[in-house]
Amino acid sequence: MECPNCHQNASRVIDSRPSDENRAIRRRRECENCGFRFTTFERVETAPLLVIKNDGTREPFNRKKILHGVMAAGQKRPITSEQFEHLVDDVENKVRKLGVSEITSKKIGDFVMEDLANIDDVAYIRFASIYREFKDMSSFMKTMEDMMAKRGKENN
Ligand SMILES: [Zn+2]
Questions:
Q1: Does residue 1 belong to any structural domain of this protein?
Q2: Is the pTM of this model over 0.70?
Q3: Which residue of 3, 42, 89, 110 lies most exposed, with the fewest beta carbons within 10 A?
Q4: How far apart are the CA of 44 and the centre of ligand 1, in A?
Q5: How far is the CA of 41 from the centre of ligand 1 (A)?
């Protein structure tokens, strides 16, 4: 490991302990050249999760996209931002638990609907009615936003 101070590759580990609830190893290192001390972390590398869209193309799993989708569906409903965040956490956990490297956007939509049904009927119906037609988060999102923008104008 290169020393961040003198850039010599001559550090040694002087202390090693579990960190982040055993999800990482924290190592204290000392440069044998200049004596500078620094810390490194060792973690399991998680493979990037890819979402297969309806047209067969793939994109990286994106929490924000799901969050925006459910927030659009839950617009003007009594749902807190914590509830939205928890929903997305739960969906992400379910996806990660499958242990796959690729998942269809339809499957993610199914997880979202499962959770949304427990939170708010109206948001669930909004999400489900549009999502079932598209089966694709990206085009769904676009339609949802257009629809909400239109409704917003009608209400004003
Ligand atoms: Zn050094």
A1: no
A2: no
A3: 42
A4: 27
A5: 18
